[in-house]
Amino acid sequence: MAKSLEIQDLWVSHDGKMILKGVNLSLPLGEVHALMGPNGAGKSTLGKVIAGDQAYTVERGRVLLNGEDITGLEPDERARKGLFLAFQYPLEVPGVSIANFLRLALKERLGRDVPVTEFYARLQEGLKTLEWDEEVLGRYLNEGFSGGEKKRNEILQLLVLRPQVAILDETDSGLDIDALKVVARGVNSMRGPEFSALVITHYQRLLNYIVPDVVHVMMDGRVVKTGGPELALELEARGYDWLKEEVAHAGGS
Amino acid sequence: MPEDLKHVADDYQWGFKDDVEPELALKGLTPETVKRISEAKGEPAWMTEFRLKALEIFYKLPMPKWGPDLTALERQLDDFFYYVKPPSKGVADRWEDVPEEIKRTYERLGIPEAERKVLAGVGAQYDSEMVYHKIKEELEKKGVIYVSIEEGLREYEEIFRKYFAKIVPPSDNKFAALNSAVWSGGSFVYVPPGVEVDVPLQAYFRVNTAGFGQFERTLIIVDEGAKVHYIEGCTAPLYTTEALHTGVIEIYVHKNANSRYTTIQNWPTNMYNLVTQRAVVEEGAYHMWLDGNLGSKVTMKYPSSILKGRGARAEVLSIAFAKSGQHLDTGAKLIHLAEDTSGSIVSKSISKGDGRASYRGLVKVNRNAERAKANVECDALLIDTESKTDTYPYMEIENETAQIGHEATVSRLADDQIFYLQTRGLPEDEAAALIVRGFIEPVAKALPLEFAVELNRLIELEMEGSVG
Ligand SMILES: Nc1ncnc2c1ncn2[C@@H]1O[C@H](COP(=O)(O)OP(=O)(O)OP(=O)(O)O)[C@@H](O)[C@H]1O
Ligand SMILES: [Mg+2]
Predict the structure, then answer these.
(1) Is the CB of residue B377 less than 8 Å away from at least one CB of chain A?
(2) Domains by residue range for chain A, with CATH
(3) CA distance linking residue B90 with residue B87, whole number of Å
(4) DSSP states of B150-218
(5) Which helix (H) or strand (E) covers residue B47, if one does?
(6) Is the pLDDT of residue B468 over 80?
(7) Contact yes or no for B217/B189 (Cβ under 8 A)
(8) What is the C-alpha to C-alpha distance for residues A38 and A41, in angstroms, rounded to an integer?
(9) In a 3-state reduction of DSSP, which class is residue B81?
(10) What is the pLDDT of residues B243-264, one digit of tens each?
(11) How far apart are CA B93 and CA B54, in angstroms?
(12) Which residues of B touch A88 (CB under 8 A)?
C-alpha cells in the first residue's frame, strides 16, 4: 500500500526536555486517521514537527512523505510537497487580507502563477462549503476572529490549497454544533483516494461526522494503541485510565 | 552604470553618481556665502537681509539637546557645500531643454514617465536649483501656480511675502534658521479659491555633489475651498562623506480647503535629514501629512498641523523603516487652537538590525479649543533582538472638554507567525516580508501607487536573509 505519511521512531525534544519518545505511525493515501490522547501527550508537538517547526529538535527518527525523507526540510518546502497543518491555535497576521494571503500561498503550492478566475473559483467553492460570506476574504488573517472563526478559516485554507496530507489539530474545539458540522463537511469534501488526514481530537463527537478509518492513541510521547473507529467510542465511554494500566503492564519491559 | 558603482546600486537603487560639473559651488557657512547665494539668485534686498538675520539666529540657537546624536554633524557644519548650482540656463519648462546629463539621471529615476501618466505638474531639483518645472496647461489657465520657489519670489512677490517664513519663522529651531539663511530651490504653489487639482503635483529632489547640503524651501497656499496634493521624493548617490538635507515646508490651508503633502525620503544612509514641515489649517479645512522615512543616517522630522479655525481637521500617516546604522526620530504635532478641531496620528515604525526608530509627538490643546479631539496610535515592529524603538508622546491639554486617545504597541517579528505562514508554502523571507507589509498596511494603502510599489520592493530586499 502506498504510504502517504510515515513516522518512524521519532524522538523530539524541546529545551532539553524529551516530548516525543519514539513515535511510529503510518497514514496511507486515501485514509483518514484520528489521533487521540490525554492533554500533554505530545499530539500538537507531533503535528508541528511533521510540519517542520524548528522550535523543536528531532533527536532521532524520520518523517517520510510519499517515501521521501522530509525530516530536514523547511516548513514551506513540505507545504509545497502537499503537507498542511491546521493549527490548534491559528496565529493572527494583521494587515494581510485572507484573499491576498491565499493568493500567495496558492501560487507557492502550485508552483505557478494562478489566474484570477482559477483562484476565485477555488475561493467560491470553499466559501460555499463552509457557508461563509465572501466578505470574510477582505478581513485580515485571523485578526479579531472568534475562536470558531479561526478554525473555520483553517479549513478554508485547506479547501483552497488542497493538500495531499492534512493534519488537523483540534479543529473541533471551540466550535458550536452547527459550525462543527460545517467544518466536518469541509474535511469530508476533500476525502478521496488522493487525500489523507490525521485528525487530532479529544472528542468522539467530531468523529461522528468525520468517520476515521483508524484511531491512534498517544500517551507520554508515544503511540500506544491503534484500532478501528470503535476505539474512539471506547475512550469516550471509559476514559484513558484503563489504557494507562494496559500500557504499564505491557511496558514492564 | 560605471562598474565600480554597481555594488552600491545593488543595495541602494538610486546610488549612482551622475557626471555633472557644477557651475558654482560655495563651501562653508559664512555671511559671505549667504550674500553670494542671494546675489546669484538676483534677490531683492529684503530677502538678503532676511537671510543674514537668519544666519545670526542660527549661530545663536543651540543644537537640539534631545533626540539623535548630532555631534558629528556639528563638527562638519563648516565643511559642507551650501550652494551648488548645476549647469543650466535656468528652470526649463520643456523636458528637452534640461541639460543632457541631468536629464539622464531623472530618466533613470523614471520621472518624465511618471509625469506623462498621472501628474498635474512636475518639478525637479538638482543640488541647489530647480532644473525643471512644468504644470498642465488647463491648470495654469485656472490660475494654479506651480513654479520654483525662486520664480515664486520673482513673479509673485506680493503673495510670496505674505506667507513666506510666517508659518515657520527662522527662530523656530536651529535648522529652520539654517534653511532660512541658505535656502535654495523648492516649490511655490498657489491654488486659487474653489479650484480642485485632482491629480498630484510632484517634485523630485536629487543631490549629486558630495559633502553637499540641500536646503529646499517650499511654500504652498491652498485658497478657500481649493484642493491639492503635493508629493516629494528624494534620492542621492551614496558617498562616503556625509551630507545634509534641511528643508522647510510651509503650507497654508484656507477655509474649507483640502490639502495633502506626501514625502517619501529614501536618502542614502550618510544623510542627515532635518526637516521642518508645518501647516496652518483654517476653519473647516483639512490637511494630511503622509510621511515615509526609509533612508538617511539621521532623520528628525515632526510634521505639524496648527488647527487654527473652527472644525479644522488634520491627519498624519507616518512610516519609518530604520535599518542598521540609522536613527529615525520622527513623529507629528497637532496644535489645537480652535473649537471642534480634530486630529489623528497613525505612526508605524520598523527597526531592523541595530536600527532605531523613535516616535516623538505632541498633542497640544489650547484653553479655547472646546471639544477638540485627537487620537494617536503608534506601533513599532522590531525585526531583530538588537533593534530599538522608543516613544515620546507629549500631551499639553489645557481644555477639559478635549477627547484625547493614545495607544502604543511594540511587537517583535515572531517565529511562530513566520512558521504559520511557512506551513502554507511561503518561504521564510517572504513570510517575514508579508508580516512587515501587513504591519504598515494601514498607512501604505494611502500611498501613491509608485511609492507603494517602491516600498514593497524595499521591504522584500530588506527581509531577504534577515531571519532564521
Ligand atoms: N514550545 C514548547 N515549550 C515548552 N513545552 C512544550 C512546548 N511544546 C510542547 N511542550 C510540552 O510538551 C508536552 C506535549 O505538549 P503538546 O502540546 O504536544 O500536547 P498535546 O497532546 O497536544 O496536548 P493538548 O491535548 O492539551 O493539546 C507538554 O508537556 C508541553 O508542555
Ligand atoms: Mg494539542
Answers:
(1) no
(2) 3-252 (3.40.50.300)
(3) 9
(4) HHHHHH-HHHHHHHTTTSS-GGG-HHHHHHHHH----EEEEE-TT-B--S-EEEEEE--STTBEE--EE
(5) helix B45-60
(6) no
(7) no
(8) 6
(9) strand
(10) 899 999 999 999 999 999 999 8
(11) 32
(12) none
Q: Report the alpha-carbon distance of residue B40 to residue B53 in Å, rounded.
A: 18
Residue with cell 509545497: A80
Which backbone phi and psi does B173 adopt, to 5 degrees?
Answer: -160, 165
Q: Is the pLDDT score of B235 beyond 70?
A: no
ipTM rounded to 2 decimals: 0.96
* CA gap B286, B443 in Å, rounded: 18
Nearest-atom number in ligand 1 for the CA of A38 is 25
> Which residues, 6 or more positions from A122, have their beta carbon under 8 angstroms from its beta carbon?
A106, A159, A160, A162
The span from the CA of A137 to the CA of A185, in Å, is 20
Q: Which of A130, A126, A125, A152 is nearest to A141 (CA)?
A: A152
Tell me which ligand sits closest to the C-alpha of residue A218: 1
Distance CA B430, CA B436 (A): 10
φ/ψ region of B104 (left if φ > 0, alpha if ψ in -120 to 50, else beta) reads alpha
- B63 Cβ neighbours under 8 A, 6+ residues apart: B70, B74, B174
Relative to the CA of A202, which ligand 1 atom is closest?
Answer: 25
Q: Which pLDDT score is estimated for B225?
A: 98
Give the mean pLDDT of chain B: 88
Strand A57-65 to strand A3-14: parallel, antiparallel, or no bridges (unpaired)?
A: antiparallel
Of the given ranges (A184-188, B2-6, B339-343), which has the lowest mean pLDDT? B2-6
Touching check for B113 and chain A: CB below 8 Å?
Answer: no
CA distance A107 to chain B (A): 9
